[in-house]
Amino acid sequence: MVGVETVAQATARSKIIAAARHVFVNPGYAAATIKQLADAADVSVQSVYFVFGNKPSVLSALLEVEVAGDEARISTLDRPWVAAALGAPHPLGQLRIQVHHGRLILERTADILLALRAAASADEDAALLWQTNLAQRRTVQQHLMIGLVEKDPSVDLETAINVALTLTSAETYTDLVVESGWTGEQYEEWVVGTLASTLGLDQAKKSRPRRM
């Protein structure tokens, strides 16, 4: 019986997370209700409360899944692409790997993050989740840029972190890719080129590493 309940709970969790992506973007996180989540997921209201407890927990789970790209409980810093980026021999090789995967994450999360930011001004739970996401993004960029500085000690760490956070924000991605019609590849090239130029990296070595 326990095993059946566990499978049922996992199934409900996946359905609720999938539904939350649409409900939290339209009508928006602040306006969304547990009943709307339940209806969109085709589960009972009681199931939403049983699996997640409250609306902020649903949003937190949604962000975790969309950032990762799957439901595996593996943190961003333990993902293979992070190791591949840090293992690249040249700073530009590292940037290409991390920017590529950062773009894939933004494809999955930019609309959710903008909805969360919009809700943060009026909702205390949303504000806390927004600040948590900002802190997590900084932690990831700091980890990656420490590796970059080890490859090129002339790079200023804080500058690298702050510029990367700005270029890879949901706002910047949405302005260029969604609103202005850039392709994902154009966006990647711009981010890599801007970072390399700002940080004073040698762009003569532009060999493209195999993406992991």
UniProtKB/TrEMBL annotation:
Protein name per Swiss-Prot or TrEMBL: TetR/AcrR family transcriptional regulator
UniProt entry tagged with the keyword ATP-binding: no
DNA bind region: 33-52
InterPro entries per the UniProt record, alphabetical: Homeodomain-like_sf, HTH-type_TetR-like_transc_reg, HTH_TetR
Annotated organism of origin: Rhodococcus globerulus
Cross-referenced Pfam families: TetR_N
Keywords tagged on the record: DNA-binding, Transcription, Transcription regulation
Gene3D superfamilies tied to this protein: Tetracycline Repressor, domain 2 (1.10.357.10)
Keyword 4Fe-4S: no
Entry superkingdom: Bacteria
Domain HTH tetR-type stretches: 10-70
